[in-house]
Recover the amino acids of this structure.
């Protein structure tokens, strides 16, 4: 009979990739090597037999992280936290170092940089790194603190960056990016990027050689709705190793489940907690009021032993495991990060009633709890935590692990313009019942003459909805479309005949207006009363829209929410809003009609609107 040690080795040859990537055998977890912490003066070394990490005390940065003999951090760009840009740029350099805990099961270190008067962003920054026994990666989180005696301030861009290592000048250690089902290709090599041509947009370069020759490369190519995924990163078929941001929760991000920002890009992995792109909100802080927030923990995960697709699948499985482990019991600050037993679960059901869409229901609806400032909204709130889930097929929902407090409960869903709002939701530790909630969709009309697109807060169902993330895609509009764009109800196809963005139209190198016409027939005379045109905006930037009905102006409006530059930043949406345009139905007639939409500002390609959906209600 084989000895136990040999049995463990034998069965480890056949263990699933997840075990292999995690560096854990089929034996008990306690068989993994203990965690070691070695204070080396200017650096601190954390190791557990799977991962070996060197952290620089001077910058609170990870300068080395090794997995299976591979260096997982670029010597040119360490893992670092930073906020702001330009004159307001700040990193936690010179932070005070301390050991938070040191046991055979976990070692955690922290770096605290206190704010000094005159410096930007009146907050203290504290960065933590924690290595657990048997873990194939290091957990990290940041804490921002604004004591009551600090002045009014704000925090804009606040992020963590992880530089990807090169194997040599012509090859990344991990050559394949993995963001989502569409963006998972081999990246240009370091030499390809060095040889690329600059463009008028500094973030975009044109590749002249390599696997992506003739294409553009830009960090915005990989913008991501963070709530749509639990991980993003890089992997290698050649070297069979991967590097990932892995999330256990999204509660600490700003702006709710439609928040999007940078993820991976050439030679780098980002995570943006608050602001800066696509209209992301800043954190507003007031003198006399103490405020603290924890961002994380999340995992810098390293795996090996499979091809890029297998490593990506393993990273997604690891994200699921992190969600099950949330909140982590090793974070010992109950006031900032309540343990599981001190948090609440909110259960309830949602019913949607729409007199003009009787089949609409709450299946798959987003339901969430947020605490925006008075008069604010969850999609522009960075100060607080948010908790979101999706309702099941029957409209039932459960939101776990909520900090105690008073929230507004929100809901929105595919097929409905606007959102449900239920203030005064008190959450206590344990199970909380929200009850049976009903969202009655308000309607001005008695019938829907037509609807273009599907209300879902993005423009993905329209043309270029599947390749919006290409640099300079807007330069192709005047080659692909006539001026004006004509869309005929009942004959045109949204995916083919309606563009994802309305901006300027280039002719002979000069920008001009680009009106869009919606042509439709009414079987009967419209009658008395008002018709209602609903324009739901997925994005707007420096935009103003003139609306005409059969050649007569019925509105001259700007979308209620604007900014974020989603078109040039290669997004499919920024911040959501909508307008109702009520006008006399007598402006329409039996038979042929035309609604014309003119986006007035066209001086810059950044000026645009993206339609979420459009609908005409008749009295």
């Amino acid at each position: 009979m084989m000895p136990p040690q040999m049995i463990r080795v034998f069965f480890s040859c056949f263990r699933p990739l997840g075990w292999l990537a995690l560096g854990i055998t089929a034996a008990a977890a306690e068989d993994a090597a203990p965690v070691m912490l070695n204070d080396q003066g200017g650096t601190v070394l954390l190791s557990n037999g799977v991962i070996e990490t060197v952290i620089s005390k001077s910058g609170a940065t990870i300068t080395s992280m090794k997995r299976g003999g591979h260096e997982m951090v670029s010597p040119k760009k360490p893992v670092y936290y930073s906020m702001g840009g330009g004159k307001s740029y700040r990193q936690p350099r010179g932070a005070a170092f301390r050991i938070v805990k040191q046991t055979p099961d976990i070692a955690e270190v922290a770096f605290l940089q206190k704010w000094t008067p005159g410096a930007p962003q009146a907050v203290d920054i504290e960065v933590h790194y924690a290595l657990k026994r048997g873990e194939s990666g290091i957990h990290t989180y940041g804490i921002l603190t604004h004591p009551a005696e600090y002045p009014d301030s704000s925090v804009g861009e606040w992020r963590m960056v992880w530089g990807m290592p090169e194997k040599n000048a012509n090859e990344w250690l991990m050559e394949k990016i993995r963001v989502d089902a569409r963006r998972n290709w081999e990246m240009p090599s370091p030499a390809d990027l060095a040889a690329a041509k600059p463009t008028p947009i500094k973030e975009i370069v044109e590749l002249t050689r390599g696997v992506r020759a003739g294409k553009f490369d830009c960090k915005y190519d990989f913008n991501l709705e963070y709530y749509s995924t639990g991980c993003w990163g890089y992997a290698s078929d050649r070297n069979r190793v991967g590097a990932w941001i892995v999330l256990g929760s999204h509660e600490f991000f700003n702006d709710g489940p439609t928040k999007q920002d940078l993820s991976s890009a050439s030679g780098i992995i980002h995570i943006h907690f608050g602001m800066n792109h696509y209209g992301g909100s800043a954190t507003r802080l007031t003198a006399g009021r103490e405020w603290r927030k924890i961002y994380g923990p999340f995992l810098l995960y390293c795996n090996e032993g499979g091809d890029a697709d297998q490593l990506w699948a393993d990273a997604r499985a690891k994200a699921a495991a992190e969600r099950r482990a949330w909140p982590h019991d090793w974070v010992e600050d109950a006031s900032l990060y309540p343990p599981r037993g001190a948090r609440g679960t909110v259960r309830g059901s949602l019913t949607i009633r729409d007199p003009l869409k009787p089949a609409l229901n709450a299946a798959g609806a987003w339901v969430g709890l947020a605490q925006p400032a008075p008069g604010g909204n969850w999609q522009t709130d960075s100060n607080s935590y948010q908790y979101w889930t999706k309702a099941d097929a029957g409209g039932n929902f459960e939101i776990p692990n909520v900090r105690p407090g008073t929230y507004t409960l929100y809901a929105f869903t595919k097929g409905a313009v606007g959102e449900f709002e239920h203030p005064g939701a008190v959450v206590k530790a344990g199970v909380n019942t929200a009850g049976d909630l009903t969202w009655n969709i308000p309607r001005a009309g008695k019938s829907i003459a037509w609807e273009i697109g599907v209300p879902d807060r993005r423009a993905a169902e329209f043309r270029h909805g599947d390749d919006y993330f290409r640099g300079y895609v807007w330069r192709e509009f005047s080659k692909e479309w006539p001026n004006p764009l004509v869309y005929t109800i009942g004959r045109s196809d949204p995916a083919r005949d309606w563009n994802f963005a309305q901006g300027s139209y280039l002719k002979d190198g000069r920008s001009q207006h680009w009106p869009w016409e919606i042509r439709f027939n009414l079987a009967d005379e419209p009658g008395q009363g008002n018709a209602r045109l609903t324009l739901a905006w997925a994005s707007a930037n420096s935009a103003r829209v003139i609306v005409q009905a059969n050649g007569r102006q019925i509105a001259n409006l700007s979308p209620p929410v604007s900014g974020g530059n989603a078109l040039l930043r290669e997004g499919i949406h920024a911040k959501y809003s909508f307008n109702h345009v009520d006008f006399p139905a007598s402006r329409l007639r039996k038979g042929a009609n035309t609604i014309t939409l003119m986006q007035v500002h066209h001086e810059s390609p950044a000026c645009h609107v993206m339609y979420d959906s459009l609908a005409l209600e008749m009295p």
Remarks:
- The chain is about 5% helix and 40% strand.
- Confidence is low (pLDDT under 50) at residues 1-28.
